[in-house]
Amino acid sequence: MKRQFAVIGLGRFGGSVCCALIEQGMEVLAIDQDEARVNKYRDLVTHAVVADATDEQALKHLGIRNFEHVIIAIGDNIQASILTTLILDELGVEHITVKAQNDYHEKVLTKIGAERIVHPERDMGVRLAHHLLSKNVLDYLELSDKHSIIEIIASTKMSGKTLMKLDVRAKFGCNVMAIKRGREIIVSPQATQLIKEEDILIVIGADEDIKRFEHEMFDE
Ligand code: ATP
Hints:
Blueprint: E1 4-8, H1 12-23, E2 27-32, H2 35-41, E3 47-50, H3 56-61, E4 69-72, H4 78-91, E5 95-99, H5 103-111, E6 116-118, H6 120-133, E7 137-142, E8 147-153, H7 163-166, H8 168-172, E9 175-181, E10 184-187, E11 200-206, H9 207-218
Parallel strand pairs: 1-2, 1-4, 2-3, 4-5, 5-6
Antiparallel strand pairs: 7-8, 8-11, 9-10, 9-11
The structure holds adenosine-5'-triphosphate.
């Protein structure tokens, strides 16, 4: 049986979540109070309905509690987002992900039982800033306030050396999880793995360790 998701709020974020889930072969119920937005997604998703998500009866009628995961992508109307989260929690929806508009919104959502909170604009901003600050950093993913994963292009200092020779783990406390070489991906590379020019390293570690690693390897 296909996994069932419901997406409430069909702005750019909610809409792209719907598209990605459908592409992955999931069943998607798309809900918005705006008929024009619903019509836009009608032919793409499994079901699309016009409904006000703050109306508990309407959500019950849609059988929302039977959905494995509900994504609340209402941004601007914080009050509606909070109320919808509360209703879904009370109805017993098992997994709820909510898009937060700001820190205050996030704080309230945490208190009322949202299992997962996403901040797409803020997170994308942070990722872009890391990319802009270091020409070698292609992408950045924050794991916690102290740990991250970065995708970084091998420097000339690194090419032609093995991971053992670079001593990344012992010297910097970081781990090279994978190496992208063109279309090939070397997962969990061995210590004897040779780094080539234009390799892309995926490195996990504490922020301060990653910073030291970048500093040492990329200051030409
Ligand atoms: P994005 O930044 O993702 O593009 P947006 O700024 O276009 O979003 P938002 O105000 O964040 O729009 O709302 C996203 C969608 O949520 C809108 O299509 C809006 O009609 C819908 N929405 C807002 N409140 C409710 C509600 N109570 N019930 C159902 N849908 C709602």
